[in-house]
Write a structure and sequence with these properties.
By secondary structure, the protein is of the alpha/beta class. It has helices at residues 10-22, 33-42, 59-68, 84-92, 105-118, 151-162, 170-178, 188-200, and strands at residues 2-6, 26-30, 47-50, 75-79, 97-100, 125-128, 131-134, 139-142, 145-147, 206-208, 212-214. The chain has a five-stranded parallel sheet, with helices on both faces. The radius of gyration is 18 Å and the shape is elongated. The two termini are 25 Å apart.
């Protein structure tokens, strides 16, 4: 799915683009409001992630211009501003959701997918071999049987399935789950993968020693 990211901070923007890309989004990243409006008008995107504090046109003005042009693309505001006033203004001007930058990457991904589903712009399931994830019902099915998993386990499995055939490092999985500026238990990913193997079978998630983890494209 194509995603438009509007963020002027180079480090944060690069990190977001990389993390969202690993979750299956094709990210177009722009760093100012004028570019955001130009790119949004020229292409079809499943959603926009928009910062408020941009160097030329504010995110609020970008949002107002989008809605005045009848653009119905879902917009998630991602900002350092955490006041109720900023949130209310954003929603009043047409934002579909509002998230502060200290949030988990997992929460950002979940909210984006929810917006895209509600707008009818994204698929509801992800399948790799005999594994199927129901993005709407947050359920995992293998060999026709539904398996109960925690929200973190679901997110780990989704990350691996969306990157099926590629080896993901523990750091990449942590970034997808927890985002930036987070202290993560050193063995958190290993614990989630251990639990998934107990529930889905020991061979579903492969360990590539010294590198990371992978789900084969023909996972069974």
């Amino acid at each position: 799915m194509k995603l438009l990211l509007v963020e002027d901070d180079p480090l944060l923007g690069d990190g977001l683009r990389a993390a969202l890309g690993k979750m299956g989004f094709a990210v177009t990243w722009v760093r100012n409001g004028k570019a955001a409006l130009d790119v949004a008008a020229a292409g079809e995107f499943a959603a926009m992630v928009l910062d408020i504090g941009l160097p030329d046109i504010s995110g609020m003005d970008v949002l107002r211009e989008l809605r005045s042009s009848d653009a119905d693309m879902p917009v998630l505001i991602l900002t350092a501003r955490d006041t109720t006033r900023d949130k209310v203004q954003s929603l009043d001007r047409g934002a579909d959701d509002y998230l502060v930058k200290t949030a988990d990457m997992e929460e950002l991904i979940a909210r984006l997918r929810a917006l895209i589903r509600r707008a009818g712009r994204g698929g509801g399931t992800l399948s790799v071999g005999e594994l199927t994830l129901d993005m709407v019902g947050h359920a995992v099915t293998t060999k026709g049987q539904t398996v109960a998993v925690s929200s973190r386990e679901f997110a780990v499995l989704r990350t691996l399935m969306e990157g099926a055939g590629r080896v993901l490092t523990r750091g990449q999985i942590e970034t997808a789950l927890y985002g930036w500026n987070r202290n993560v238990d050193s063995n958190a990913v290993e614990v989630h993968i251990h639990n998934l193997r107990l529930k889905l079978g020991a061979d579903v998630i492969k360990t590539v020693r010294g590198v990371g983890y992978t789900v084969a494209k023909s996972a069974s």
